[in-house]
Specification:
With 350 residues, this protein is α/β, with parallel strands linked by helices. It has 2 domains: 223 residues, 3-Layer(aba) Sandwich (Rossmann fold); 117 residues, Rossmann fold, CATH 3.40.50.1100. Helix 7 packs across helix 9 and helix 8 packs across helix 9. The longest helix has 21 residues. Bound molecules: pyridoxal-5'-phosphate (PLP).
Length: 350
């Protein structure tokens, strides 16, 4: 049993939520690239979620996450990521806009110049975030530094609690069940646009990191009974329990809204072939994909997330994995601030 779009909207309306973005985001055909690639290629512009020039997928998640934080009477919002985290930057403005103090613990994959904060780190400061840069210790991996940053955050939250200050702790990427509701909602929004415009898609491509977007999309697809295949292109190497965690998130989100549908690991298509040398490391194929989309369509995808996902889409079309003439949707998840970040992250783009 699946539900109608109207019923899904009603189920989501019951959840705590603070309006943050501009919705629905545009859904447009890419005429020049459709012709060049031989597929019917569309794009959903979640880089335009708002509330400023630098939107992205986290805005949708944060509507529910900040809703929950406000509901719980939090005064501070904590979150985590890399120093150039898009998620941390969007959390900073979303918290500030709702009168909450953003506190960020950011692992320095690429160490920032303390005298010259760039891109997302600069924006974090403008939005008034309390920033804690967690430098990588000798021999420490990014994942280890992140785990250490979570512990530092937890200790900070506990010390504030002793002073009577209540905080809401948002995991990296906003990947909890509340955050995932943002992409259940996105799927419902997309289904509405498809119905209105008489469209259907065989395939959707998007970038995946924490897995929250993927989980929400899979949950939304199950809820509405859509038959599109969702290809999740990883921005980094992921561990063997990645799919299991995403399924847990998806089913947790469905349960939260009272849905009886569920998701299993077979519903996920996780493609680890396009993150290049690593997270925040430029790759040749993403560089080519970024230039192609920019030069044919005037649209920017970033070198860390959406550019690598778009490279995955191009690769599958060119290899014939996606048959010619298919209806393909690219979900643009944002990330363009990274163009103004450190050279090591963006590579040689021109
Ligand atoms: C631009 C962009 N695209 C995609 C993702 C991946 O989203 P998720 O963390 O929900 O998997 C991120 C995560 O930070 C992102 O910043």
């Amino acid at each position: 049993m699946t539900v109608s779009i109207k019923e899904a909207v009603k189920m989501l309306e019951k959840m705590p939520r603070r309006p943050l973005g501009f919705f629905p985001t545009p859904l447009c055909r890419l005429d020049a690239l459709s012709e060049e690639l031989g597929v019917n290629l569309w794009i959903k512009r979640d880089d335009f979620t708002g509330s400023n020039l630098f939107g992205g997928n986290k805005t949708r998640k944060l509507e529910f996450l900040i809703g929950k934080a406000v509901d719980e009477g939090a005064e501070c919002v904590f979150t985590y990521g890399a120093t150039q985290s898009n998620h941390a930057m969007q959390t900073a403005w979303a918290a500030a806009k709702n009168g909450l103090k953003p506190i960020l613990y950011l692992a320095a994959v690429v160490p920032p110049d303390p005298e010259d904060f760039k891109a997302n780190l600069l924006l974090d400061g403008i939005f008034g975030a309390e920033i804690h840069v967690v430098d990588l210790e000798e021999g420490e991996s990014f994942a280890d530094a992140e785990r250490r940053s979570f512990r530092m955050g937890k200790e900070h939250i506990a010390s504030l609690e002793k002073e009577g200050v209540n905080s809401y702790d948002i995991p990296m990427g906003g990947a909890n069940v509340y955050g995932s509701l943002g992409y259940v909602n996105a799927m419902v929004e997309l289904a509405g646009q498809m119905e209105e415009q008489n469209l259907r898609f065989d395939h959707m491509y998007h970038s995946t990191g924490s897995g929250g977007t993927m989980a929400g999309l899979a949950a939304g697809k199950a809820l509405l009974g859509l038959d599109m295949q969702i290809h999740s292109i990883t921005a980094m190497e992921v561990d063997e329990r990645y799919a299991e965690r995403a399924v847990k998130l998806a089913n947790g989100a469905l349960e939260l809204i009272g849905a009886s549908e569920s998701v299993s690991e077979e519903d996920l298509i996780i493609d680890q072939n396009h993150y290049g040398p690593g997270y925040e490391c430029p790759s040749e194929e993403a560089t080519e994909a970024i230039k192609l989309l920019a030069r044919r369509e005037g649209i920017l995808v970033d070198p860390v997330y959406s550019g690598k996902a778009f490279a995955g889409l191009i690769s599958d079309v060119r290899s014939g994995r996606i048959p010619a003439g298919s209806d393909v949707l690219f979900l643009h998840t944002g990330g363009s601030t990274v163009f103004f970040a450190e050279k090591e992250i963006i590579g040689d783009l021109c």
